[in-house]
Design brief:
Helix content is 24%, strand content 23%. The chain is α/β, with parallel strands linked by helices and 213 residues long.
């Protein structure tokens, strides 16, 4: 079958900003769909890394206290810590931890997951996403980007910290969405049917929901 590559026959992406300059990045479509599906888990005291955008969007009035963790004292930060080792964060503190697109920046992601498990309360929930197939664009995090993940690698990390029946790993993406994301197209440039078809050979985003027993 002949293929007309048209605008894709190029050596540079259409966007070097993950597609933000064209609309919603393809990976953010998967991240936000995952969080929306589990919005009921966002309640009580919630910790989010980076900022509290998703805490407020998906938790709203169910959130009684919102904390933001960063490794430097950026505006809006309530906890300065490195998730790989954060002994000053008390055990059993949070009802929900939102960890989107963070573990790829952590050299020892297993240690970060151990911290998350420790600071979750009983029946607390971790909602986490991480990159599978992804460009590494010029950004403040370029020099910190250590990993991309697969369903297998995430399961092996999780099972060392959480009970096997307490978490579910899923992947989202297909050859079209992976290609679109690499080129910097936005989610709005694809159809819902194209975005919602998952092929495990082309996971753009890996996600996990885990509950602390």
């Amino acid at each position: 079958m002949a293929v007309n590559l048209a605008d894709l026959r190029r050596l540079s992406p259409l966007s070097r900003n993950w597609g933000y300059d064209r609309g919603l990045p393809v990976d953010r479509y998967f991240i936000e769909r995952f969080l929306a599906q589990h919005a009921g888990d966002v309640h009580g005291r919630v910790l989010e890394v980076g900022d509290a955008t998703y805490t407020h969007r998906y938790g709203a009035e169910r959130v009684t206290r919102s904390d933001v963790l960063n490794d430097t004292d950026r505006p809006g930060t309530t906890i300065v810590a490195d998730l790989q080792s954060a002994p000053h964060i008390a055990d059993d503190s949070f009802d929900c931890v939102i960890l989107t697109q963070t573990l790829q920046l952590v050299y020892e992601p297993g240690a970060a997951l151990q911290t998350v498990h420790r600071i979750l309360r009983s029946q607390g929930v971790l909602l986490a996403t991480m990159p599978g197939i992804s460009p590494i664009m010029d950004s403040p995090w370029t020099d910190q980007w250590c990993w991309s993940f697969t369903r297998v690698s995430l399961r092996r990390l999780m099972i060392q910290r959480f009970a096997p029946d307490s978490f579910r790993v899923e992947g989202h993406g297909n050859v079209l969405t992976a290609t679109a994301f690499l080129y910097g197209l936005a989610a709005e440039e694809l159809t819902t049917a194209e975005l919602d078809f998952d092929d495990p050979a082309y996971d753009v985003t890996i996600a996990v929901r885990a509950t602390k027993p």
